Amino acid sequence: MLEALSYEFVQNAIIAGILVSIASGIVGSLIVVNRMVFLAGGIAHTSYGGIGMAIYFGIPIFLGASIFALLSALIISFITINHKSRMDTFIGLMWAIGMAIGVIFIDLTSGYSVDLMSYLFGSILAVSRSDILYMGILLTITILIVSLRYRDILAVSYDSEYAKLRGINVNLFYSLILVISALVIVVAIKVVGLILVIALLTIPIYIAEKLSKSLYSMMILSSIFSSIFTIVGLTISYLYDISSGASIILVSAISLLSFIGYKHL
């Protein structure tokens, strides 16, 4: 594996993996404590429509997917705030429509033969320097938002009624968490793919949650675990020539099962 570090694409993959792991650890913690896993899944699958449209119109994939994910996050936020009783129906509908739009636009793109597997299961080895720059900027923004408004986010996440009494705009922070989640989901798709992205945002977080006494420590531990799983998964992927996204998630899942087994000894 050491000789592989001399290749630029491997260096890019490791840097991207660590950046996304840290972002996933932070945002994944917010998703879990706010019980947004299903909502995040809806955003992830809906964003496929943005991927298809980006390919069709010839714009950067990240840009198209980000715009689509942001729109879906705002729509989901509106639905969950105003129509909670029908939330699962609307999100399921958006999920299906987003995927369908993506497939149709890809089919309509003349002369383009796309490897759907790269979007469904990740293509971290194809990460470019511009992708890394985007990931770095997103991570910086995420850290700044969480750091500057940590107390408000903490209050909203664990006791929204108390947060309202303190005069915190709960709906605004709820929407903000979904928007940040949408952007992180888009970059995480590059690492592990659309199908596996929710696992990256939940498995390390579950382990960290059991070992943490605060949201802050949970975010740090989640980021560390996610980074370790990503590096180990990439190493296995390189050694055995298998899908990097699936390898990362498999390492995460085995670690989770081992952790659960250890806790029950």
Q: In sequence order, what are the helices and strands, one letter per element? A: HHHHHHHHHHHHHH
Give start-end ranges of low-pLDDT stretches: none
Structural class: mainly alpha
Portion in beta strands? under 5%
Rough shape?
Answer: globular
Average of the residue pLDDT scores: 89
Overall domain count: 1
Largest sheet: none
Please report the total strand number as a whole number: 0
Q: What's the N-to-C terminus distance? A: 35 Å
| Structure annotation, total helices | 14
Describe this structure in words.
This protein has 14 helices and no strands. The protein has 265 residues and is mainly α. The protein has a single domain, classed as ABC transporter involved in vitamin B12 uptake, BtuC (Orthogonal Bundle). Helix 4 packs antiparallel against helix 10 and helix 12 crosses helix 13. It is globular, with a radius of gyration of 18 Å.
Q: How do the helices and strands line up, and which of them pair or pack?
A:
Elements: H1 8-33, H2 37-46, H3 48-57, H4 61-82, H5 87-108, H6 116-120, H7 129-148, H8 150-158, H9 160-165, H10 170-192, H11 197-200, H12 203-211, H13 215-240, H14 244-263
